[in-house]
Design brief:
- By secondary structure, the chain is of the alpha/beta class.
- It folds into two domains: 138 residues, Alpha-Beta Complex (Aspartate Aminotransferase, domain 1); 266 residues, Aspartate Aminotransferase, domain 2.
- 36% of the residues lie in helices and 14% in strands.
- The chain is built from 13 helices and 17 strands.
- Helix 3 packs across helix 10 and helix 7 packs parallel to helix 8.
- The chain is globular.
- The two termini are 33 Å apart.
- The protein binds pyridoxal-5'-phosphate (PLP).
- Pyridoxal-5'-phosphate (PLP) binds next to helix 4 and helix 5.
């Protein structure tokens, strides 16, 4: 696709976009009576219009049936997690039995580490990206301590080379190989929250396994953003949240993936709850935990109906649009944003893009590293109806989300940057 050069061209690109109508399925915050330019879908996705009726439906179901709501209706609460499994599995390229929606992300990360971080005096290290999202850093650190090891020696962080902003796959693979003898777990993000780098998860999983370690991914910024093939890539586990690109509302539920190779291994240690127990016997209230096969066997509690209902309304949109079509548009829209930003800077050197310039190595996010003029630019954009986000010390992150952002949004953002006096 030829990237547009004018407002008219941007509007034509929207007309030609087969996904353009999905924009009408979302509620946009307002600024001076019109839609904000919303570029924060990597932080909190917009509300799908289908969420409110889905929530009301469950409230009505509760009002009408009380406890019997667990068994009645098209989507009885008793089995509610099942109504999400297939769509969630499609999103990440997994088999349905490999996926379950439950809890929240960091909780699931800990649950997965209980099963897949089993350090021994000889094999205790975790490899992760330097500057990972803080919750991941704290989870790793506390897990290491919980097992009686020292985070200083047990956690190996991979940082960009001096003068570079992102990681080279060759460096990641080389460090995994170098640490092979003592490595227990490779735990990587899918897309880095700060730089927007999309890691080569297939190669990382293969290298981790060659080293004799387990491999897990935190897909908070990857789920709903980039197509994945978790089953084929062979990761042991993965977790993600649903309130960023998956638009399921603040604090929305998390997804968890456990590879099929672990599905029928009741010996795998885990922290158990009644909802992970064999569902045919769950209400016999007997002693002796017998896990359900697959990811469902890691469930602790009965379904969180309201947050699951919002999640379902959002997953339905992903099923209608399809991840491949979303990726196709995402590549165009992100390339367009990159071009618009470079043009709008006009040689002022207001910022430097730290997101990989290779479209295959990023999702729909561009991170701009600014200098002291950055805050002025960010505030100017905010005053003019742009919702973007600022990450300390000086990065502006912009996410052109293919499900609801338009080429015109991107064009108008560029116009604002040109008009900023900083
Ligand atoms: C957003 C995000 C989280 C947030 O975790 P919650 O448990 O949902 O609060 C954790 N890790 C990463 C990588 C994230 O991007």
């Amino acid at each position: 696709m030829q990237l547009p050069n004018t407002l008219e061209g941007a509007r034509q690109a929207d007309q030609a976009d087969p996904l353009h109508h999905f924009r009408n399925q979302f509620l946009f915050p307002q600024h001076n009576g019109s839609d904000c330019l919303y570029f924060c879908g990597n932080s909190l996705g917009l509300q799908p219009k289908g969420v409110r009726p889905a929530l009301l439906h469950e409230l009505d179901h509760w009002a009408e049936h009380g406890v019997e709501g667990h068994f009645r209706g098209e989507m009885p609460w008793m089995h509610y997690h099942r109504f999400l499994t297939e769509a969630a599995a499609r999103l990440v390229g997994a088999l349905p039995e490999e996926v379950v929606v439950m809890n929240t992300l960091t909780v699931n990360l800990h649950l997965m580490m209980v099963s897949f971080y089993r350090p021994t005096p000889g094999r205790y290290k975790i490899i992760m990206e330097a500057g990972a999202f803080p919750s991941d850093q704290y989870a790793m650190e506390s897990q290491v301590r919980w097992h009686g090891f020292d985070p200083e020696t047990a956690i190996v962080e991979i940082a960009p080379r001096p003068g570079e902003d992102t990681l080279r796959t060759e460096d990641i693979l080389q460090i995994i190989e170098k640490e092979a003898d003592t490595l227990a777990l490779v735990m990587f993000g899918g897309v880095n929250y700060y730089t927007g780098q999309f890691y080569d998860l297939e190669k990382i999983a293969a290298a981790g396994h060659r080293a004799g370690a387990f491999v897990g991914f935190d897909l908070a910024h990857a789920a709903g953003n980039v197509p994945m093939q978790l089953h084929d890539w062979g990761a042991d586990f993965a977790v993600w949240c649903s309130y960023k690109y998956l638009n399921s509302g603040p604090g929305g539920p998390s997804g968890a993936f456990v590879h099929q190779r672990h599905a029928h291994n009741p010996q795998l240690p885990r922290f158990a709850g009644w909802w992970g127990h064999d569902e045919n016997e769950r209400f016999q209230m007997k002693k002796g935990f017998k896990p359900m096969p697959g990811a469902a066997g890691w469930q602790l509690s009965n379904a969180q109906i309201f947050s699951f209902a919002a999640h379902k309304a959002s997953l339905d949109l992903f099923d209608q649009a399809g991840m491949q079509a979303l990726r196709t548009k995402s590549l165009q829209l992100t390339a367009f944003l990159e071009k618009v930003l470079m043009d709008a800077d006009g040689g002022r050197n207001l910022f430097r893009i730290i997101t990989p310039r290779d479209p295959e190595a990023r999702g729909c996010q561009i991170s701009m590293l600014t200098d002291d003029r950055g805050k002025v630019l960010f505030e100017y954009l905010s005053e003019n109806g742009v919702l973007a986000d600022w990450r300390e010390p000086n990065v502006i992150r912009l996410a052109p989300v293919p499900l609801y952002n338009s080429f015109e949004d991107v064009w108008r953002l560029g116009t604002l940057i040109v008009s900023c006096e900083s």
